[in-house]
Amino acid sequence: MDERWRDPALGRRMADFAHRRASALLSPPEARALSDYLQQLVREGRAPPPRGRGFDWRAIAAATAIPLESLQRARDGLLPGLQALRRELRKPPRLRPPRPPRGRPCGPIEDLPPAAHDPTPEPAAFHLSLARQMRRHGDTVHGLTRWLRAKGHPTARGTLKAWLRGTKAPRHRDSLAVLARLETRWGLAAGHFRARLPHPGRAVAGQRLEAVPESERRHLAWHLPEDFDRRPATEQEEILAWVHRVIMRGATDYRRYQAFAVRARYGLRFPGLQPVGEAARLAPPGLTAEVEALVAFKTARFAPVGLAREGVWSAATAGQKATHLGLFFGALAAAPEGPARGYGAPAEAFTLAMLVFPRLWDWHLAWREARRGFFTAWEYDMLAFARSLTAAQTGWLTQSPQLAQRLSPLPGLIEASDIARAQADWARACADFHRHAGVRRREIDRLRRVHNDPFEPIAPVLEAQSPLGEYRKIAEEVARRRPCPRRYPLAAAEASRAVLMIRLGLHLGFRQRNLRELLVCRRGARPRSERELAELRRGELRWSERAGGWEVFAPCLAFKNARSSFFSGRPYRLVLPDVAGLYDEIEAYLAEARPRLLRGADDPGTFFVKTMKSPNGAAAYDGTAFYQAWRWIIQRHGVFNPWTGRGAIAGLLPHGPHSVRDVLAAHVLKHTGSFELASYAIQDTPETVARHYGRFLPQDKAELAGRVLNAAWSDED
Hints:
One of its GO terms (molecular function) is DNA binding. The chain is mainly alpha-helical. The protein is 51% helix and 4% strand. The strands form 4 sheets. Strands 7-8-9-10 form a 4-stranded mixed sheet.
């Protein structure tokens, strides 16, 4: 058969016959065996073994290992195919026609071909740059394919052609190795082509990550070097340990504690007040009804008739208080032998009236100290919250004596005699606890420590000469690795959103809630009035015809510190500066990126929206989702990774959007030394900046004073 040829479609026809006809008559293994047998006959040019005018079914059964009974049952259906094969093979074979040589004979290919002069600048697009370098060095697709195969990088010609057309781009680790080899061949700088890829920040595909659990591979792929699977096992372990410690967990003591706390959840959730997941522990109906009544009392526009209160909760504050109550009662309900090591009390007996018993609080404070190792501001604030509930004139518990009827004994913490005294004189029980909570609060204030140091994750930024300029590098890193919007529209839209998150955070200095709830009014549309925004308690990004720029307007009621002297009852207004292409970013985001992120979902009206996977669901960020989105940006683009070379700032740790306020305050303090000017940058007071935001170290103060004093030595007179 080497020198003769038959119809090349014969083998395909036999395979199709076995697939269509034999699979309906024989079992799948038998049909596959018959198909292989027919293909072998075609390759060898042999007809099926004959017997008289028919076929020798015993010989066929022996050659295919198919039972003779099965072949005899399928005989009538198989005969047409076997007869067609015999007729085709009886035809006289023809000599194979000689194949004329095509193209020029292949000659040797130089390893370092000379480059022709080309005055045109190097294109920014990968496929155009690749085509230009091939022209300069006289290379062809066929020649490069031969050369790469000889160098141990077999590459299909179709792959190179797709790269040249721009329909595909290298992503696999083997393809990136080909780019590195081409850069060496043409004398280009390392990374010349990699920097021009349409998605330069994409994770490398094709790595063998047997040492990484399947659930973590997608998250870790971005943070691993391209040659991770080719490095020694000890170095792989070192890289994985660094990524887990620094990028995933954040490396601080608080982050390690938080990772432990997330694995050992114990809090109760209140349906209707909080989002409830599948694994959430629900509070009992009685306790849930009481918490709902408390939230309604504190969030209503006016206090109910006959009741008094001090202060009103926003929706965010109500959610926070519900979470804290869920943690308090969740510790009581948790099993003593479980990871939380709680008290093991029956949840059905829980009531808010239990909060007036001092022994219960002393147990909870001791449990919190044993769990964390020390007291923090959480215990201090929780005692203040409990004191407000038992205030003489305005406390909700004091004004709800009917709750005492739901009390039941809790061995070791609440005795029957304690319940009897409380039911007999509820006002006195509340007053006694009010005094006890005040004493404990003063003691906790003396013992508490700072666990979550807000300055620790951003220490390299705060230590820089220009903290704002240092943090700005993160936005520049995101923009530098932004993919091509034509090839990767969704990834490019997410990158645009990330750039604007960092940029607007640095320009505004807003708290997280004000930033994520910022509304948007497109150019030419009617902006919302101050009254409308005050009702919504939100700010708005709008185009100002008077100022000729994008303006952020927010009523003072939108801010947490609405009564601060910074506002004095007046709204906040800031015209954003058109620096570093900010206006172009905003307009491109509103015109193209934001609609792509929504994907047809209902528009919540906020400037920042989530990436919607389906039209159903809420597109607006909540507090947790916005924090995670910001932290994801810092993990990928902020933290410098020495193993991959990605990231903007060495020593930075993952953090949330609130850290931007620390950066702005530190920047103003370093350059002016004024706590008052620093408070203007974050819409607060000098006292608050000095207490919470101002990291103004002695060396910073000495340096600032030195600038003034040293100027005297430079005067000629």
